[in-house]
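Exercise: predict the structure of this protein bound to iron/sulfur cluster.
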Amino acid sequence: MFQERVLSGMRPTGALHLGHYYGVLKNWVRLQAEYPCFFFVADWHALTTHYEDTGIIEESVWEMQVDWLAAGVDPTQATLFIQSRVPEHAELFLLLSMGTPLGWLERVPTYKDQIEKLKDKDLSTYGFLGYPMMMAADILIYRALHVPVGEDQIPHIEITREIARRFNYLYGREPGFEEKALEAAKKLGGKRTKLYLELRNEYQEQGKEEALEQARALLSDSQSLSMGDRERLFGYLEGSCKIILIEPQAMLTKEARMPGLDGNKMSKSYGNAIALREDKDSIMKKVRTMPTDPARVRRTDPGDPEKCPVWQLHKVYSDDATRDWAQKGCRSAGIGCLECKQPVIESILREQQPIMERAQKYLDDPSLLRAIVADGCDKARKVAQETMREVRESLGLSYS
Ligand code: TRP
Ligand code: SF4
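Solution:
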């Protein structure tokens, strides 16, 4: 129940490119071996900005998941699903919205930024303001501990933590909490009861973080507790209310900055991207027409790799020997730019080959992907439903 679950989502707004591959997907592939991972298509999120042109969302939902699988996300390890297929997200979103102060949402830095940046869209909508709260619901409903995100999303994790804390504070209080918690501790049994109480003391009196971690692990391992007792014991470690929704941690993906064809960060909106699955001829053409150091007007003019976006790609794709060859050849005008680009082209094509092969299986038989996702949605829904039962009960909405 309180496993160290990892959750992350991506908006379906077009084909993925090498920036996503280096910045996000490689990380997901690494994580899936270590944690139970839930990866989902955030289609409702895409609606917050694309509510007027939903066509791109429909196209991208499946294509994007083919990209994930092609990049090496393994459906036997990770759970893949689509947000809108788990309508419980919307229920939690609604319930959280009741107690979330408007100011918290207005102060999220991306809120005003994006309204400024995406001037061609009218984002003065209720949905766009509420978007970080929807993200909070996405995360909290799976009781995920780790959320891999880029730097720009950190404030959203922060607000998620605040929302969880407030929820637990409002709905996790109960008369006689301490007695109930002690009762629950007894149910851990003998040594475990004693250990739990000792660890709690160490944390509360000496602030030892390791003691808190250890106590949490102890609770996670004990199978016999009821849900309510578990929430009490988690809550008793730190304070005086039940912990119904867990505060997640941002797992910062260290910025693997993938340079685009013009040297700026790769991004679809800059038109400088190479797709994760791009046609061979198109890749060759794109790299061959990349700008280089402007000082190299003629083949005989020496250049400076630091002023050239091709060199940025060598840094990602080439081994030391090739880099050395490119550096020297550039500075001495010993090689031409087309020659210099060739090893980069070859490396990109070599990288794409297994990606293309993995994708082919799903392109040949679309029902394979539908089955994987149907299965993932079922799994996700089970977890989400369980959380919602607890949430409704805490709010006094179960009317039993
Ligand atoms: N907001 C994220 C983005 O724009 C996508 C997202 C939605 C997400 N819900 C999430 C990421 C939950 C992590 C966890 O990239
Ligand atoms: Fe760039 Fe290579 Fe040409 Fe030098 S030789 S300018 S690094 S493409």
